[in-house]
Amino acid sequence: MSGSWDEYATGWDSNEAVIAYADNAYHALKNIVELEGRRIFDFGCGTGLLTERLANRASSVVGLDPSQKMISVLENKCLKNVATIASELNQDLINDNSLLSPKFDLVVASSALAFVPDYVKALMLLKQLLNKGGCLVQWDWLKDEGDEGYGFTEQQIKSALTEAGFAECSTSVPFSLQSDGSALNVLMGVARNV
């Protein structure tokens, strides 16, 4: 997967739709969780459009993305409280990478979890990174039951979060983006590690 994302790295930060997605996700996040002074893990951070916004309020942010080129764009921004990891998330990385300890207050995944090979397994790995009481927030395209393509239904997110051991699982549609004259709804999933 990372090879295909590498191709997008150079122009990613100038893509108006990508910028709008990051802005809207950040504003939706500010309305539901406290960001000030938090330790945050940005899963699938890409070039760091959301990471940058989080870094303004967080004590620290660790951004992970499998695309080295995306990570390089983020690193070139020289954000003082942001560390990066160019890798897939797996158990060995959690066990061995010192950037993943101590645990995090908040895990965010902006348009990333629909692209992982095993959604529930990814959620279980992310849950390991959270403090007790910590929050996971994801944004992905809203799909109707039976639709093809990347994204989730509300039920898919709620079921997967519950199966992964999260509590207080909820979904909402905090924003939509226009594409070719139609609105594409973005689904937000929120859950707590108990």
UniProtKB/TrEMBL annotation:
The keyword Cell membrane does not apply. InterPro entries: Methyltransf_12 (IPR013217), SAM-dependent_MTases_sf (IPR029063). Residues 42-136 form the Methyltransferase type domain. It holds the Pfam family Methyltransf_12. Keywords: Methyltransferase, Transferase. One of its GO terms (molecular function) is methyltransferase activity. PANTHER family: PUTATIVE (AFU_ORTHOLOGUE AFUA_2G14390)-RELATED, TRANS-ACONITATE 2-METHYLTRANSFERASE-RELATED. This is Methyltransferase family protein. It comes from Pleionea mediterranea.
